[in-house]
Amino acid sequence: MSEYQDKFSKIIDLLEDQAPQGLSISAIARELGMNRATVSKYLEMLQSSGDVSMQRFGRSKLYTPAQRVPLSELFDRLSNAIVILDADLHILMVNTSFIKTLGIHRERNLIGASLFDLNLRIFSDPAIRRNIERIRQSGTYLAEMQHIEDSTNHIYLLEFAPTVSHVGKPGIMISLRDITAWKNAEPALKNSEKKIRTIFETVPSGIILFTGEGTILNANRASLEILGLKTFQELMSGNIFAISCYKGKVTELIRQGKVAETELACDFDRLRREQRIPSTRSGIAYFDIVFTPITLDGGGVPHEFAILFKDVTTERLARKELAFKETRYRSFFENTCNGVLIYEPINDGGEYIFKDVNRATEKILQMKKQDLIGRKLFEVFPDLPDPDVRDALIRVLKTEKPEFLLPLQYRKGEDSPWIWHYIFKLPSGEIASFMIDVSDAVRKDAGAPLQACSARGKHSRDRAGSSLS
Which run of H or E residues covers position 329? Predict the structure, then answer.
């Protein structure tokens, strides 16, 4: 141990023995048998390195061991490998990371040795040596250099800085860090960033990035096209809340701070009038959106958010029109006085599945809808005339020409109704049938109605036969 280190150690040991009571310079000099001026100089050095603390009481200075981590200990805990040289390039300080990084044996004493005489790898590189010499001679030097070690293919980043000691002597600090993993990951990172930028610019859905206060940070090309804008600057004049007719919906999404799917409506006329956003669109538009917070690497409450959205105005209006038509069809289907049956043919028309029936059909057949849907026609009604009914259904299925059927009974018996049918094929490939209960006419005058129906049925079959021939 050098004389300086021995004196430093004795002063610190004395202060720790007397702690928490502080000692003056005179008291320390008296206890250690040292010159007061020498003790004062040592205390200044210990204070500058963070090993002791000083408090003033009037004209006196009282010293105590430092409560904070000493600079020497903090230096030793740094992850970067660091060496500090004096003006003659002799080593003044090294930390543990320097010893580990360069594979130096722990028992080897480096303090006071010349850096270039130690034959340390990396520092044998002529370019690094010349850079260190330039700093020593106060010349132009590189603050950073990269070194590739041939034997290991490791890449190191070296940082250089001139220093001045507490007594005003010049020195050099060199920091060394292994950046191999970072360098190897750099191409993949650049490639990933390029892919993200490509997706951002080419995806057909709009993407807008914004802050919790509504300030728009970025938007892709599709966003501008959807909103009827030419440049991003036109969008920046407004905020994210202006795009939605209901500011509260976006505010609530930000408050919840989690991924969500929803729909937003935008009034482009109000957007131009109130926000001065020069959109070429007009009227109300509807957007399906996916909202997401942009999470921070270190966690915590997100401050930036994004929405991915697409224009569904056309689809929404189409759904509305379809719902209206469906309601209109269902009203006609259920409330017409005639029975209506929908069959799905299976086995090339050998059998038919009940797909839908209306209330009139339930009344005519004296069966509930739920007892028919999904069941087979000829299994539920085995008494249906065969082959007349089967042949007629197959003809309609193949020729797509409607036919009339003679009045028939679904079940045999005097109480079973006589039903007249008009059957035709739907665009879906299903068979539809209009049904009329003609029981009264059949029982009142069996001949006349049957002859009329027979004539109509014969005419229909003749037309079907001529089309096939």
Answer: helix 313-335
* Burial class of 94 by CB neighbour count within 10 A (0 to 12, 13 to 18, 19+): buried
φ, ψ of residue 376 in degrees (nearest 5): -85, 140
Which residues share a beta bridge with 309?
206, 289
Whole-angstrom distance, CA of residue 292 vs CA of residue 370: 45
Q: What is the pTM of this model?
A: 0.44
The DSSP H or E segment spanning 43 is helix 36-48
**pLDDT tens, N- to C-terminus, the chain (469 residues):** 456 677 888 888 888 888 888 888 889 999 888 888 888 888 888 887 778 888 888 778 888 887 666 566 677 778 899 999 999 999 988 888 998 888 888 777 888 899 999 888 899 899 999 999 999 999 999 999 999 988 888 899 999 999 886 556 889 999 999 998 888 877 877 887 788 788 888 888 999 999 999 899 999 999 999 999 999 988 887 888 888 877 788 899 999 989 999 999 889 998 888 888 889 999 999 999 999 998 877 777 888 999 999 999 888 888 877 777 777 778 888 888 889 999 999 988 889 999 999 999 999 998 999 999 999 999 999 988 778 888 899 999 999 999 999 899 898 888 889 999 999 999 999 999 999 999 888 877 655 544 444 444 444 445 444 443 4
Residue 10 C-alpha from the chain's centroid: 61
